[in-house]
Amino acid sequence: MKTVIEPFRIKMVEPIRMTTVVEREQILKKANYNLFLVPAKDVLIDLLTDSGTAAMSAAQWAGMMEGDESYAGSKSFERFEKVVKELTGYPYIIPVHQGRAAEKILFHVAIRHLGSRQPMVPNNTHFDTTRANVEYLGAKAIDFPVLEASQPALRKPFKGNMDLEKLENFLNQHAKKDVPLIMMTITNNSRGGQPVSMQNLKGVQKLAQKYKIPFFLDAARFAENAYFIQQREPKYNTKTVKEIAQEIFRLSDGCTMSAKKDGLVNMGGFLAFHSKKWAMSARSLLILTEGFPTYGGLAGRDLEAIAQGLEEVVDEDYLKYRIRTIEYIAIRLIQMGVPIVQPPGGHAIYIDAASFLKHIPRSQFPGQSLVCELYVRGGVRGVEIGSVMFGANTDMELVRLAFPRRVYTQSHVDYLLEVIEEITKNKSRLHGYKITYEEPIMRHFTAHFKPI
Ligand SMILES: Cc1ncc(COP(=O)(O)O)c(C=O)c1O
Questions:
Q1: Domain closes at, from 246, 280, 312
Q2: pLDDT tens across 393-408, in order?
Q3: Ligand 1 center from residue 220 Cα (angstroms)
Q4: Which of 2, 115, 203, 300 shows its CA 20 to 30 Å from the CA of 150?
Q5: Active-site residue, selected from the candidate residues 159, 174, 261, 347
Q6: Do 432 and 331 belong together in one domain?
Q7: What is the CATH number of the domain that holds 216?
Q8: Any catalytic annotation for residue 261?
Q9: What is the distance in A from the centroid of ligand 1 to the CA of 102?
Q10: With pLDDT > 70 as the criterion, what percentage of the chain qualifies?
Q11: For the residues of 337-359, what is the DSSP string, one character each?
């Protein structure tokens, strides 16, 4: 059979409140045309983020009931540690409440450890919170994405890769003591969720060894990345996704993990190391800010759910369904003539709003116009990733539709496509927006808009 189906059936449902176009016009106006200010109960299909929005399995919920809430040495920690060790091969596993907590502790340890005056961290592309945690400590976050990453229409298999030549030039120019670690974000979220190839990961590892610098992964979407390697890198098409993931982790010296993505949970994460020295420093800081080392910032039940989620996420039927959903939407959008970032990544579709709405100048936020129309026409919530979010620091006006894991069905997806098709037919009627209120930082969360 060619049709890829959801490899699960539904045992517990959460109703969606149906609304009309007229109701949504009023709701949006009341929210000052900012989708972050629209109550979730008024959204039909919520594609704001894939983070912390997954549906847990029956086995995960059963694990929640089994959670051991002992302060020290709980049974749930033992299970969590065993699963993470088996997957990653790192000997020191430290639970934290989410990805950014792992980042805060890692950079604190790495940067303090070196005592450099001008620390710099290279990455294929830092995710926002990773960059913020590096910069908060007075260090510089530097990105070395490959050139093709900035060409949205170009179809290449691994647009998330690190530019190895630029990385090597950088390592040549700077003293070892100024580079606490090299990081690789898999998949590359800020570049459209594009995957990184095994060849590229091995290239980074080789440079890290040559210059004697620790190599860390930001592993939030490691399973999606491993699946892309299996599908797109010929040497790996006979390996299982789990074997590929294990090989990736074993190239590096440690990782940060937001389990809110490929951990298939709503909250949680971990930090892991090969180095005992770094792990011990990290644990001291952990006790100060997160909790005792066998629970981090989490409840015992959360550790059970993560352990189970990490086992389920490498299931190939699940990954096939997930990646196929995104690919299916991409194919249909291309057929409709909707410009998107190609090829689609693992967790989201990015619509190029500037090309889609050529009649709306960038100063009038074409991405904002499209997210508002998606909401009014279909109750779909996406997010503007363009001039509203980044001000003058971007050359792209994108709208991201991120897909929660195991939450929506094929008919939800077909409905979304119908909404976009209708918008496409009438797109000349869409208009720009102006900002009437904004905060000095992170304005996109709270800004107010008015239609022009
Ligand atoms: C690549 C990447 N790293 C780190 C994080 C931060 O994780 P958290 O939201 O759990 O703090 C995210 C969250 O979206 C992410 O996508």
A1: 312
A2: 777 899 999 999 999 9
A3: 7
A4: 203
A5: 261
A6: yes
A7: 3.40.640.10
A8: yes
A9: 10
A10: 100
A11: T--B-SS--SSEEEEEHHHHTTT
pLDDT one-digit tens code per residue, 190-230? 888 999 999 999 999 999 999 999 999 999 999 999 999 99
| 150 CA → ligand 1 middle, Å | 21
Q: Are residues 104 and 71 in the same domain?
A: yes
Tell me, using a 6 A CB cutoff, whether residue 347 lines ligand 1. no
Please name the residue whose Cα sits nearest to atom 5 of ligand 1: 99
Last residue of a domain, one of 283, 312, 341: 312
Q: Is the CB of 99 under 6 A from ligand 1?
A: yes
The tally of domains found in the chain comes to 2
Angle made by CA atoms 10, 14, 19, in degrees to the nearest 5: 125
Q: Which domain holds residue 217?
A: 58-312
Choosing from 36, 58, 59, 71, the catalytic residue is: 71
By mean pLDDT, which of 94-98, 209-213, 341-345, 421-425 is the weakest? 341-345
Q: How far apart are the first and last CA of the chain?
A: 50
Q: Name every residue whose Cβ is closer than 8 Å to that of residue 79 and which is 6 or more positions away in sequence.
A: 303, 304, 307
- The predicted-structure confidence for 289-315, as pLDDT tens digits, reads as follows 999 999 999 999 999 999 999 999 999
Catalytic (active site) residue 220: yes
